[in-house]
Amino acid sequence: MLTSCKSPDGKFKLPGGDARKTPADPAKRVEQNLKDGRGFKLNDAFSGPKGGVFDFASSNELWRASLDTIDFMPLASVNYSGGIIVTDWYAADQSLSGESVKISIRFLTNEVRADALEIKVFNRKCNNISNCVVRELNDELGPELKKQILKKATLYKKQSKENNN
Prior knowledge:
The protein is an alpha+beta fold and 165 residues long. The protein contains four helices and five strands, in the order αααβββββα. Helices cover 30% and strands 21% of the residues. A five-stranded antiparallel beta sheet has the order 1-2-3-4-5, with helices on one face. Helix 3 (61-69) crosses helix 4 (141-164). The chain starts with 25 loop residues before the first helix and ends with a helix.
């Protein structure tokens, strides 16, 4: 594991950076190294490659808030590790209008922030059983759902912090 400090031309060379570019104060050197992305933790060196972080769904505020927000709709597909929730077609009233809605929620991050979710809302209008038109809605329903989910997730996160303290 030890190597020589000689360069290929045989001259002695110490590894390291230019002293003129490195701050003399150790605290500032550490700060600069962190900014530059240098350094490692001993645990990281021996633990090998890491996969994704799979917390329990109940501890993920965004996941819980999303399920609570759309709990009135039947779910077609739910995949926590894949980060997606897809509802089944849902009609608010059982009238003969032939319209129904389907929602897809993709989780882009576990952090509670505005760009953490991608929500798509689809509308299906059927004249009869075999004649249906499906289109993506770009109205206020998607942003309103996102706002409600983020509000609930923020409350869940606040409650979680209070319980941990």
